[in-house]
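Protein in question quoted in full.
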Amino acid sequence: MGYSVRECLRPGEVRKPPRKWHFHNTENEAGMRSQDLRILNRLPPLETMVCFQAVARCGSFTRAAHELSITQSAVSKQIKALESAVNCALFDRHARGIVLSEQGEMLLEELEPVLFRMHRIITRIQNRDGAEAVSIACTQAVAHFWLFPRVARFNQSHPQIAVNIISSNSINERTCSDSDFGILYGDGDWTTLDSTPLFPELVYPICSTSLTLPSPETPSDLVGLPLIQLDSRAWDCMDWRDWFRHFDIDYAPSRNTLTFNQVTLVFSAALKRLGVGLGWEYMARQAIEAGELYRLGNFVCETGRWDYLVNSKYRPLSEAARIFRDWIVNSATSTDWMDLRTPAA
């Protein structure tokens, strides 16, 4: 025999819809988590991916080995292990060196931001109790040529403050917000970031002092010289087309010209007498003053854009961060780049 219960409503009372009950299948959830872990277990070892990123960034097994403090043979084994895991070649080997294959470029594009985020969160965890630590994110070129020498000097005067440099070419407004500071290229107008200009973008042709080339009288005279090409499609960076366009010159590189995908590699190629490269003032000045490079011609492209020291508008700075900010901004107030607007002797 069944029973029914009739709901009694008071005058004016509205019947409520029946309550929906949600039942969680804990066995299914556990199974899904287990499946996720099995997928992660099939990923290549982390050290192979770190090695791959270093080789791709350095453009050389030897330079990557030096950076990672391991042997070149160890680097080669890690790359072979990763290529075996993904079942394809990640680099194309040529007589002049290595370049990323199409699959390698795809992997680097996805992998580099992940490694960057991992480094950032580990650094934040390590420094969770240390108010005397400061983190700063910037591109690899800015880190090597502009920031690192200054951090070394800062450390001499403020040894109690540890500065952690996070270098990646994948930085943007969002990733800079995750560190105490960032050095970001642009117009200085970001919704979530405060910005202070550090140095302007000034770009001119450079080559090795041991390479004898005719001195150009006009920018168009450079077209016939061995120009080292920069493939900057992956980020917001000037190449020779952009540089010549600044002087109202249409330029297209010839086929099979020497091409690199990093400004640091172009810089190294110029030092090695492989041709004429584009030189950013913040990178080239020290080598020019040391007599290793020289400006070819009196032509400087000034884009009007700068590299800025940025930090989140919504997170207060620690005392250590304020000390570092004031010091680094003061170190950039030198106006010796102004003489580039006048012809070189």
Remarks:
- The CA atoms of residues 69 and 205 lie 33 Å apart.
- The mean pLDDT is 83.
- The domain at 41-126 is CATH 1.10.10.10 (Arc Repressor Mutant, subunit A).
- The first strand starts at residue 91 and ends at 94.
